[in-house]
Amino acid sequence: MPNIPVSFDTSWIAPLTERLHEDGPWDKWELFKLALEAEEAMAVREFDQLQCLKYLPLLSPFPHQLQTAERVLNEMRGRAILADEVGLGKTIEAGLIMKEYMVRGLAKKILVLVPASLVIQWTKELQQKFGIPAVAQKKEYMWRQHEVVVASIDTAKRDPHRRHVLDIDYDMLIIDEAHKLKNKRTRNYQFVKEIRKKYCLLLTATPIQNEMDELYNLINLLKPGHLGHSTSFASNYVEGKRQSKNSDKLREEIEKVMIRNKRSDGGIQFTSRRVQSIPIELSQEEMELYEGVTRFVRDQYQAESGLFNSLALITLQREVCSSKEAAFMTLYNMHQRTSEDSPLRGQILQLVEMIKRIETHSKAAKTVELLQEINDKVIIFTEYRATQNYLQKYLHDHGITSVPFRGGFKRSKKDWMTDLFQNRAQVLIATEAGGEGINLQFCNQVINYDMPWNPMRVEQRIGRVHRLGQKRDVHIYNLSTVGTIEEHILKLLYEKIDLFEMVIGELDDIVERLNLSSSLEENLTQIIMDSKSTREMAIKLDNMGQAIRASRQLHVSPSLSEAAEQ
Amino acid sequence: MQANQVRQFVERYLAAFSAHIVETHPDYLTVKLPVEVDKDIGNRPFYWSWVEKMNLAYQPLVLTFAFHPDRMPDGLRVEHLHLGAMRMQQIFASAKKHGRFLCMYEKNTASLPGTGKRRSTPLVPWLGLNLKVSLICDKRRDIMLYLGINLHQPRLVHDFASFLFQLPLSPTIPDYFYTLDRKLSVEEAVELAKQEVDAVIAQEDQQWAMEARARLTEELDILAAYYEELARREPPAEQDKSESVEAADTPAEKAPIPLPVRATVQAREPVVEVKQSLDEYRSSGGRILDFLRANSIQETPREEINQEEWKKSTPEEEKQRRMDELRWQYEPRIEVHFINGGLFYLHSTPPAGKAHPAKTMRHLPASRRMM
């Protein structure tokens, strides 16, 4: 029989003896009974069964989330990498596990380290969805004063905070976006390694981005030595930087510490995406403006006068596709920056005059038509503040209610706008930055008024509505002005890369793998600026699209990511 | 706990403090919190230290609790109470705090042999102990024990609490009764209880502990092998060299500024704890908020925090820390917690049978209320 140490609580003997001696004060019989009932309600009757659900009557987790929580509890013993693909609810899984250990009385002191931008969101979610009294770390005293603290890793690792964190025994440590800890030589990695913890959850959607070492480092943070020393790991499992050998054995080892739910596993039903291009014929005046601006932009780019950098020029080129108001603001600023005797002033003023003469609003008019046809909640995305303001006024003039949404809004204002949109307005007009951090699953119609050139940003836009919890198919309308670069870009993103046909999160992998996010916009700029004719531009864009397609289909087998994915 | 059970619990809790129920409705209830309740569940420690230090009349907190998430009243600031709600946990904690120690007498009026003849009847002193036995490794299970120990004629019974719940009890000794003396001290009774707890534990299936030990051993072995290999492959000297080129996460990041170690602490005058009253404090020009902070937020004294410059752990330290973590996580242990208890002077005799109730019975709460 194992000799298990028993600690018998004796702290109550003295107070009871004293009360016996003094004959009181005694508590009430009813409260005595209630205390016992409370204790019975909270008692953990089984080792293996999930207890937390009876504490979470408002939460209905998906089956894969419950299974994950059970596996972490019963098989991984509270130390795991949660590596679900994007959109499957890793936060819910982490919350379930956290709550489970809390109701079992096994975790009190808990630290959640997340990127600074997510601190408030995590805190709110833990409080609202899980009834966990989490606080966002703001002041130094909070490390010790509060049991569940959410903080940014960059704050936590600095003095004086670091001293507190490394001095505390944490029952549980949770790290979101853990793939940022892939390099073991960074200070963040060293810091996390030094934190004393009993249970530990590492959350990441991309456990392996490039090299096999990354996963090794992540696992070594969780359970040093689980995969042996890095040298033996290399000789046992690594063929090349991205290739593994003994894949079955490796997979088995990884499965002991990592759970990766995938959309393709089934069981999780995502609604489909229906994408439509809405071609828009510009009026003659509008087309003249477009051509005028295009000529101006190209001349300035090739003249390399140094007055305007290529970013400003390409922005102007894109703005004129979005709305004349957006282009107007930039032209105005450019005018202010040129000296009074510059010949450019004349050219700019000429363009401004053209804007003033335009009476039609082809794109906005089409949008109103579309909105009336849809007759439901719609989110319109645009990249430009000026377009946003102008659209809001234009919709208002046509009897359509709308609310604005920007990244610069405070959290409370964002929530307020979301609320207004849900209950009062038909349309939410969001600028790019405003796309993050809110859930709008009650809406299933998205209009891309103009297109970002970075596919990840397109994905983020759609991701606001197309995620777990969306019950209807998602309709995406891409406005495209015929005969402009907008049309070409859309062709590239939509037809060549099949951007919209991808399932949620698939794009993450591709963009990461091809390192597209930094280079795509640059390449596009070059192609558009350097092409001498529209035809040349079309051919170059086509080539680029084919290159992306080709590398996407290129599969190196057996790659480690595949081994880890099984 | 179902919604109606939550409601009943809360109503009984509030009644125990004679709370004033402002409004009661099938879906919700509005209550004016009594002082004790407010302090326990009101979440306003600042307010309370303020009221008490200033000697002010307090404004009672009025809260509305709803019990069905789909039937929340409109236009009211209302809180949904359920088992997992933070406020419910505070109510539980408050009930436990105020329901710890008891002294009750059985008032059995009818069918006493002595009735009418004005002859005194003896009451037997029992120590009732409600304990929670927690079996802990990386997981946990609780066993509730409701022990009763006869302090007059030493013997121990199980399931004492549910027996008590059937008896008419009173906080004062009824007329024509007298109490028999306690031949067993509390300490001696505790010894009996401890022995019984040990016996109960011994009867339990030990599989969980053996499995936890096996997991611990396996993990420790892996760890030992890993650090052995590490030492072989990366001798300390060489490692220092390679580790010194640490990449910074951001180029702008500077090395932490070393704080003067301990010197500042020692140089400081020993702080004499002077408890200022709020009036004194205010008359000396201090801000009220600062005063409240100073008096209600505990900050860790600087000298208690390790002020030494941070150094990366050596592999030895790292291994030690990881071993400690593993033991913390897996090492099987049993904790016996006191829930509440007290002295019960009884005329009736609890059913005999010292044996620990059958396993299936144990899952039945003594209060007979299924949660």
From TrEMBL, chain A:
PROSITE patterns: HELICASE_ATP_BIND_1, HELICASE_CTER. The keyword Nucleotide-binding applies. The keyword Mitochondrion does not apply. Residues 366-515 form the Helicase C-terminal domain. GO terms for molecular function: ATP binding; helicase activity; hydrolase activity. Residues 71-225 form the Helicase ATP-binding domain. Coiled coil: none annotated. Signal peptide: none annotated. CDD domains: DEXDc_RapA (cd18011), SF2_C_SNF (cd18793). Keywords: ATP-binding, Helicase, Hydrolase, Nucleotide-binding. Transmembrane segments: none annotated. PANTHER family: SNF2/RAD54 HELICASE FAMILY. This is DEAD/DEAH box helicase. It comes from Brevibacillus gelatini.
From TrEMBL, chain B:
InterPro entries: YqhG. Residues 233-244 have a biased composition (Basic and acidic residues). Residues 233-255, 301-320 are annotated as: Disordered. This is Uncharacterized protein. It comes from Brevibacillus gelatini.
